[in-house]
From TrEMBL:
Organism: Bacteroides caecimuris
Transmembrane feature ranges: 15-34, 54-73, 78-99, 105-121, 133-158, 170-189, 196-214, 303-322
Phylogenetic classification of the source organism: Bacteria, Pseudomonadati, Bacteroidota, Bacteroidia, Bacteroidales
Superkingdom: Bacteria
Record keyword Transmembrane present: yes
Key word Cytoplasm present: no
Keywords for this protein: Membrane, Transmembrane, Transmembrane helix
Protein name (Swiss-Prot/TrEMBL): O-antigen ligase domain-containing protein
Amino acid sequence: MAICHANVCMEEDMYFGNWLMFSVQIAVITIIYMYRNVLCPKYLTEDYKYVNLYLRWTYILSVIGFVVADNYIEYRQLFVGIVSLLVPVLCWLFCRPTISLNLLSTWYKYAWLPFLFLFYFKLGFTQFYMQPILVLVCLFPLFPKKTAMMILLLGVLLATKDIEEERAPFIKATVAILTGIAIYIRNVLPTKIIRIGRVFCFFCSVIVFVFVFGDAYDVFAGKADVEEVVHSNKERDVVEKDTRSLLYIDVVTSAIDNEYLIWGRTPARGFDITYSGVLFWFDKTISYNKNERHKNEMVLSNILTWEGLVGLLLFSLIYMRGSYLAVYRSNNKIIPILGCFIAWRWSWGWVEDVNNFLITDVDLWALIAICYSSYFRRMSDGEFIVWANGLLSKKHRQLFQRLKIEERND
């Protein structure tokens, strides 16, 4: 419960209270839209169909949100929700190899330091501001041996830091390391195995609900009541606690009871706090508009609340199409493995991966953009390795520029 409480407080501090950050987010989104033809010339092609359909659905729900919002808090929630829902535009930003190379290499060289000072004393050493490191962790075998070992050690540090209290960073960093290992042995991995791996990564969502969120199933099936679930959680140690089940019970029952399961409640509103109130109401200083929680840690449950099953399907198809293009339409054996990682991140979205337009989402959407980008997918293994090494080496960035890999024309 303490973890959930911390996340609630962080949500209000980082989003509702920080209008400067919100202004920067709006400015970045505006710039991406203004230059989308330059950033991603192919954004209107068949490959990006589901990205565009999802964004159009977001526009519709955003307009409806302006109509249904009836107080200051809901208008504030609306703006936060819109920004969160527009995260997929990062597919356009990281489409071109040269642009993505410059953006990521600049962060690895300079930007991590301000984030360290801004967030370390509040959050500690976590993936909240070190998230772009996971891109390097996934690609660690592509670097020279010493650099690869340093990246791998950093990935292990991210995975094991506060492992007893923070399970999510451990799992996410561990899967990134396994992705890197798969890339290391890519030449002996049959294409069929990679394709099966993609399907398995999507199937992990079923495993999550059967074995991780078992409490939610027991409540819906009438095998246990909420009080029994709460008491059971209190008796478990930190690693075994199931704090997500009560949230899912509320998300689903709220959507059904208020009849917004198909179309969504708009990003101005949240889900009713009925069962999960026991996770938050122990602190009487926390209050919620209309007894609703606007968002939580599970990205796909937020999409379901704000945009209904229609939005959830379109958002999920972004992952599915990206992983399909990576696995079936690539000229190299590196990006197909990244496509499997993207498939797994969709399954992980039922557990965590909050949709924020922040540095915390850069690793995921940069990798999704790579899977969508025909520029990246046309590269050979050697060309992609040159690009990857350019993330940390000025010499390789110059080499990549000379190769002019990015500027090939169809």
